[in-house]
Design brief:
Helices cover 39% and strands 0% of the residues. The chain is mainly α. It is globular. Helix 1 runs parallel beside helix 4 and helix 2 runs parallel beside helix 3.
């Protein structure tokens, strides 16, 4: 006997189809249907990446803006003076200091970055833990780039720090304008020390000197040119009837009952 076989299933009946409609005939001024396509959606950035620009600041400049501007102008003027001496022997001692001219430049850059850091970190009773330094192998004219960076960092920090912020300094808990004044003092005084040590000195300019005196030396003697008075207040020169100081310090504390002096941006 042969095994019964299962008949193969019948082929399915073809499904009824509705004929596709004929393509429309293009009329004058219209594209054929085949050419009418839906454009692909343009790729867009995620919503989070589309930043809304901050509103522009309006109104008169703040005290921080004015002091930051004076700091930037003072830095530019000091850098011009220092570049003019870049070919001199910077291993010579800076006038009145126990540092060489090159070491004084390091100290200056360190101080400016340090003031910016104090305004940012605001430690209660100490210096910050970041120490900026210049490349000891770099020539002086290249190291001046570092000084420009340091002063720019401080100016930007002063400009962006709210007026009610206070930060520690051993010579008085201060605000952004006080640290700007300290930076200006460092720039004009150490530029004076360096250039005098190299035999090319001139006193600080009137505008920066007057601003520093008004903010940091409220008890400075009156009746003398501001540059001469600043040199006296910092132990660098005598005044008529007033011998050179052996010790000195400024006062960076905020005196809320005394309005800040108007600031001139004349740094040259």
């Amino acid at each position: 006997m042969t095994a019964p076989t299962t008949p193969a299933p019948a082929a399915p009946r073809p499904a009824r189809t509705t004929p596709a409609p004929a393509a429309p005939t293009a009329s004058a001024g219209t594209a054929p249907a085949a050419a009418i396509t839906t454009p692909a959606l343009a790729r867009t950035a995620p919503a989070a990446a589309i930043a809304t620009p901050a509103p522009a600041r309006t109104g008169p400049p703040s005290a921080g803006d004015s002091w930051a501007g004076l700091l930037s102008d003072t830095s530019a003027a000091c850098l011009d003076e220092l570049r003019a001496t870049a070919g001199e022997d910077w291993t010579r001692r800076a006038a009145g200091l126990d540092l060489s001219c090159r070491e004084t430049l390091d100290h200056l850059a360190l101080g400016l970055v340090g003031y910016a850091g104090l305004l940012v970190a605001r430690p209660a009773d100490r210096y910050i833990t970041l120490f900026a330094s210049l490349d000891p192998a770099a020539p002086v004219d290249t190291c001046l780039e570092g000084l420009h960076i340091a002063s720019s960092l401080l100016a930007a920090t002063v400009r962006s720090t709210p007026g009610d912020v206070r930060a520690w300094h051993p010579w008085g808990r201060s605000d952004a304008t006080g640290f700007a004044a300290m930076g200006i003092a460092e720039l004009v005084l150490h530029t004076y020390d360096i250039t005098r040590g190299l035999g090319r000195s001139r006193p600080p300019s009137e505008g920066p000197a007057a601003a520093v005196l008004a903010r940091l030396f409220p008890g400075a003697p009156a009746g003398h040119p501001a540059p001469d008075t600043l040199l006296w207040c910092t132990g660098r020169a005598a005044l008529p009837g007033l011998p050179r100081l052996g010790t000195w310090q400024w006062d960076g504390a905020v005196r809320a009952d005394r309005p800040l002096p108007p600031v001139s941006r004349s740094a040259r």
